[in-house]
């Protein structure tokens, strides 16, 4: 909840009050009785609930589309990609609404209510049965009943309602949680870095629970129950979130214009003043007493926004130096965002082709139980859950002692480390796939795609585990980076930009797969993604992704050399 400055905010502050924050009644908030882990714990619970609900839908969505709704595999895959992409891009809209109008607290509550409504409607759509034989046709040309047509409409309306709610929920919850730690206090700033670690730990714990329990319920018991349980969990999460209301720190929001409008005005004024000389900028900076810094020298063309287009300096006609620096902070993020896209493309493969690999291999255990291929994704979450405590409690203190960095290593170093690990994982995936193809050939299974390849599925564990380890570095690092490097008023937008990396990455992955499919399937040849995986070449694809990741990593390192960290309000 962003609170407009009330008269209470003008009262004398106590020694332990926090600048820029109020309590739930609009009074100056005390450090000793608010924020930090006492508040963040409530917020992490609602995030665990949301991730449980989201992955309860997304992890098994293709099964529902090809099962009860009767879609073809190709159509279902396209629907899943489109929904995942939309769900990752909508946070840009949700963050804009939160930072410009409603505030984070109110946006979280509203988004949670819409989330619960969407999940309830999904459960309702699953209860509908098709009895009538009249109606249209599905993707495969099979006649649909009118009741099934209504079910499909209701299902997809509910599905995108959930995506819309996630768009408001996702960037605001994490930003609101990080807001509970004061960056002007060195100890709380260190704790905030741990918050991002344990935040991702909670996310993966919720995902691991979903993959372990909810998918089994959906496949073997009831889809109605499988969609209803996430709704119940979201209700519980919202109640827990509301219980923490009196302990939260709420950022002060005055009557000033939207920060997005402010940043936009900087670019507009810089363009309008494009013909003005840099000597005029230097004179203006000297008149304002602005000292030359490394930041002021970068993207110097934006400094032209300090000048009035007509020579006057009326209110609103020129930008302040802080507004110019905020615009520079936004533009500095663009190269990091772009060079992280290749990591997002690689990330998208864990739920598709890794699963396809596992489906052809020996998945039986000593007890005779056969591991579902989709459940192999749980090794990513398990790897995260196991490694984050090691990272936070062992690696960070040791690295801090060596480097002096509060978080052990810089955020850009953390992100780059995960990219290296991801590249290694793709190479291992290619080697395992080569081994699988060789065994299939040795046993004469090249033309028998439905026969199990006598190779244990446990060979896939290293690539899944390394993906989880890469997430600990890159995924968590990107979250904290895009939050930390944005001005306070734009931090929800910053986290939305982080999420958009994976939305755009999902679309780029689909485009890359389609392009390779068209290039490699001509003249009667089997494509790299042939339905018969024993004739396909996923190993080539994994090696291509590894090469692209290496190129992306090189570009990323080049960009980091010119990056200047923003230190919004820090005193150290």
Helix fraction bin = 55-70%
Distance between the termini: 28 Å
**Total strands:** 5
Q: Helix/strand/pairing class, anyone?
A: mainly alpha
**Order of SSEs, N→C?**
EEHHHHHHHHEHHHHHHEHHEHHH
Shape: globular
Membrane topology: Multi-pass membrane protein
Protein name: Protein NRT1/ PTR FAMILY 5.10-like
Keywords: Membrane, Phosphoprotein, Transmembrane, Transmembrane helix, Transport
Main location: membrane
Walkthrough of the structure:
The strands form two sheets. A three-stranded antiparallel sheet has the order 2-1-3, with no helix packed on it. It has a two-stranded parallel ribbon with strand order 4-5. Strand 1 (17-22) and strand 2 (28-30) form a beta hairpin. Helix content is 64%, strand content 3%. It has helices at residues 36-58, 61-66, 73-89, 91-102, 104-127, 146-178, 186-220, 223-243, 259-272, 278-288, 294-297, 321-339, 341-347, 353-359, 378-403, 411-442, 461-484, 491-520, 538-560, and strands at 17-22, 28-30, 250-251, 361-362, 453-456. The relative contact order is 0.12. Pfam families: PTR2 (PF00854).
SSE inventory with pairings:
Elements: E1 17-22, E2 28-30, H1 36-58, H2 61-66, H3 73-89, H4 91-102, H5 104-127, H6 146-178, H7 186-220, H8 223-243, E3 250-251, H9 259-272, H10 278-288, H11 294-297, H12 321-339, H13 341-347, H14 353-359, E4 361-362, H15 378-403, H16 411-442, E5 453-456, H17 461-484, H18 491-520, H19 538-560
Parallel strand pairs: 4-5
Antiparallel strand pairs: 1-2, 1-3
